[in-house]
Design a protein that fits this description.
With 267 residues, the chain is of the alpha+beta class. The protein has two domains: 40 residues, no CATH class; 149 residues, Ubiquitin-like (UB roll) (Roll), CATH 3.10.20.90. 38% of the residues lie in helices and 18% in strands. It contains nine helices and ten strands. The longest helix is centred in the N-terminal third of the chain and has 27 residues. The protein is elongated. GO terms for molecular function: zinc ion binding. Keywords: Isopeptide bond, Metal-binding, Phosphoprotein, Ribosome biogenesis, Ubl conjugation, Zinc, Zinc-finger.
Length: 267
């Protein structure tokens, strides 16, 4: 062992070729030499030392390069000029419905996930949609959701006690056990700083398209389904876009107590 010089060596580091006798010595040599233990596939090997294993390693290395090059070529094809025109058309259609649809640069996860399309024949959007249930730490992704479908119908397979899937119902039982009047559907307001995140409340009885009008959407809508009776840190703006008045109940109660004290003093 080249680390402790006491025991017989059992292992050889693929990176620096140092011999070690145990896991402890392996860790010590990595720490002392700043070695990551990963074999260098491009390291020079003389002809005299070249073996069949080195040949196999080189062959696999070339295969990996070929696979990466092929993936890169496919990547450029997918994001061709035609695709860019399609995205521009999608944004223009959304703008016609008073929806500001923004798309992310190539490589972003939401850009890869997004499956939103517009059917020119039906003159209808089919949205890629994400549902988030914060109280159960659950998320579900829906594809090809028609824009004329109401939010109530969209949520039925998830929180409706009768129509929801048994597995989903069990996971979201805190929602299915609550009355529909307690369910609140929120959508994050985009283009705000991280320290002032705000949400808009959506109307469950109206269609998805009606609820998205006048909103900014980055790639696809994400809806947060919360319960009013349970505490959460989401700040919801009023219908006119005004900030909610905090502690209004406590302020009114404190004012009433002051008024009562003044009446007692005067009497």
């Amino acid at each position: 062992c080249e680390t402790c010089s006491k025991e017989e060596a059992k292992y050889r580091c693929p990176r620096c070729m140092k011999y070690s006798c145990s896991l402890l010595c392996v860790k010590k040599h990595k720490l002392a030499l700043s070695c990551n233990g990963v074999r260098d596939k491009t390291a020079f090997i003389s002809v005299n030392e070249f073996t069949d294993l080195n040949l196999l390693s080189d062959y696999r290395f070339l295969e990996d390069i070929s696979r990466i090059a092929d993936a890169a070529a496919r990547y450029c094809t997918v994001h061709s000029t035609a695709t860019k025109r399609l995205l521009q058309c999608l944004r223009n259609k959304a703008r016609g419905y008073n929806i500001e649809l923004k798309t992310l640069p190539v490589g972003f996860t939401k850009r890869k996930e997004n499956s939103t399309t517009f059917n020119s024949t039906e003159n209808k959007f089919y949205w890629h949609l994400k549902l988030v249930f914060p109280h159960c730490h659950a998320e579900y992704t829906l594809k090809r959701v028609p824009d004329d479908k109401t939010l109530t119908d969209i949520l039925k397979p998830y929180i409706d006690p009768v129509e929801s899937d048994p597995v989903v119902c069990q996971r979201l039982k805190i929602y299915t056990a609550s009355p529909q009047s307690d369910v609140q559907i929120l959508m994050k307001i985009e283009n705000r700083s991280r320290n002032s995140i705000r949400y808009n409340e959506l109307d469950a009885s109206r269609s998805l398209l009606d609820n998205l009008k006048g909103k900014v959407i980055i790639e696809y809508p994400t809806l947060f389904v919360v319960l009013k009776s349970l505490k959460n840190d989401m700040v919801v703006l009023g219908k006119d876009g005004s900030e909610p008045v905090e502690n209004s109940d406590s302020e009114s109660s404190s004012l009433s107590s002051v008024e009562e004290g003044e009446i007692r003093d005067s009497s």
